[in-house]
Specification:
There is one protein chain. This protein has 420 residues and is α/β, with parallel strands linked by helices. Helices cover 28% and strands 9% of the residues. Helix 4 (77-89) crosses helix 10. Mean pLDDT is 87; it is low at 175-188 and 280-305.
Length: 420
């Protein structure tokens, strides 16, 4: 590899529609680590022979998103990696906004969108849904939401579970019967530190997800969280006495995480159920799907929420992927996952966060929220990180592209066979 542009050739991408930190995503911004190429891009995720996985073809994915509904991605910077990867996988059929070349200072909360490109050679072959607008109806949108619930919602939940009392301890077992109140944490601290994070209520992004054409045309909501559930951010759970070996109290946070994810699932499934009941199960392909008060609605519980051409609206929770220690010393994948030696951030506990989220969603109360434990291919790739850190995975190494391939398979082939 002699220049950044060589990374595109090695990955097989013609280019990428998104221009946000372009070479950073492709791990081509530090010449000192170019020796990884082309080997780092030579791997592809493949499931077992029991899985009838159809080939990934950008033209088929774009056609499906246009005619049957697109994807809304909600999560932190790891989820943003999937948005950028999609902008490469689907190029040249999509264009991206905003333009970071003209203005690199957009806040991370700003929506990123992929739209059908007016110059795509697919355009004459597509059956555009009524009211679909090439200029304003996104195929893919990413919104930065680190904890899935808003800051105020988490404070309210914390108040409810850990009510104030002269002897209250934020590390004690949650009390679901407690009355809300203004809660102070251990050492008279509030729930959150001053560490910056991005939050949005699920009600707000469900409004986006359920919006009808021409505002939106989503049938798949993809969620992931865990990376920012740390005791440096949620400082009320921090316990300096247990030290780094115990993550400064991260295990004490896990019951709160469970309750927060249950609250999140109740909101999301509730919105889908409510909107279907209000809409009578009709397709959400027009502004008629708005409730009389202007609230965006759509969907159903039990037999699916209808989007484009009857595609059921579903929510996918992707297992979160931790980083790898000393990642840049590796030049090939592992054959088996290697446990952590150190206790960086909350990485050693990410698996437990995933297990808790999966356990919450195993309840029949959430029939249209699906947990996908597709983290193993990434766990085995310490060699596949961007050049600047050991958390974020580079685009083109096959990890993120594998997520997209299987999620597309799951929502188009596997979920339809399960519809009640």
């Amino acid at each position: 590899m002699e220049r950044p542009e060589d990374a595109l050739e090695f990955t097989g991408f013609e280019s990428c529609a998104s221009d946000r930190e372009f070479w950073w995503h492709l791990a081509a911004d530090e010449p000192g680590k170019w020796d990884r190429f082309p080997a780092v891009t030579a791997w592809e995720w493949r499931p077992s022979q029991d899985c009838d996985l159809r080939p990934f073809r950008a033209e088929e994915v774009v056609t499906d998103m246009v005619e049957n509904g697109g994807w809304l991605l909600i999560g932190d910077s790891v989820t943003e990696l999937q948005f950028f990867s999609l902008s490469c996988l689907l190029y040249p059929h999509v264009r991206a906004t905003p333009n970071y070349t003209e203005n690199p200072y957009f806040d991370r909360a700003w929506p990123q969108n992929l739209y059908l490109s007016p110059s795509s050679p697919l355009l004459p072959t597509l059956s555009l849904p009524p009211s679909f607008n090439i200029s304003s109806t996104p195929l893919v949108t990413f919104r930065r939401v680190d904890l899935l619930l808003s800051k105020d919602e988490l404070i309210e939940l914390y108040d409810e579970l850990y009510p104030p009392s002269p002897t209250s301890n934020p590390n004690s077992k949650p009390n679901s019967n407690s009355e809300p109140g203004e809660r102070k944490g251990k050492g008279n601290e509030t729930l959150f530190s001053d560490e910056r994070f991005w939050s949005l209520s699920p009600h707000e992004y469900m409004d986006i997800f359920l919006s009808p054409l021409p505002h939106a045309h989503y049938t798949t909501l993809i969620i992931s969280t865990a990376g920012h559930w740390t005791t440096t951010l949620l400082r009320a759970f921090r316990d300096e006495e247990v030290g780094e070996e115990k993550g400064y109290g991260v295990e004490r946070m896990l019951p709160f995480f469970r309750e927060a994810m249950r609250r999140w699932a109740e909101v999301v499934q509730g919105r889908l159920s409510e909107s279907f009941n209000q809409g009578g199960g009709e397709s959400l392909a027009s502004d008629d799907s708005f409730a009389s008060d202007g609230e965006n609605v759509g969907g159903n519980s039990g037999n699916g929420r209808l989007g484009g051409k009857g595609r059921t609206r579903q929510v996918i929770v992707r297992a979160y992927l931790p980083g790898h220690e000393d990642c840049h010393s590796h030049r090939e994948p592992w054959k088996e996952w290697v446990p952590f030696k150190w206790k960086f951030y909350n990485w050693p506990w990410i698996g437990e966060f995933n297990r808790i989220f999966q356990d919450v969603l195993s309840s029949p109360s959430y029939p249209d929220i699906h947990f996908l434990p597709i983290d193993r291919p990434g766990l085995l790739r310490p060699d596949a990180h961007v050049a600047g850190d050991c958390l974020h995975i580079m685009t083109g190494a096959g990890v993120i592209e594998g997520w997209t391939h299987y999620i597309w398979q799951y929502v188009t082939r596997e979920i339809p066979g399960r519809i009640r």
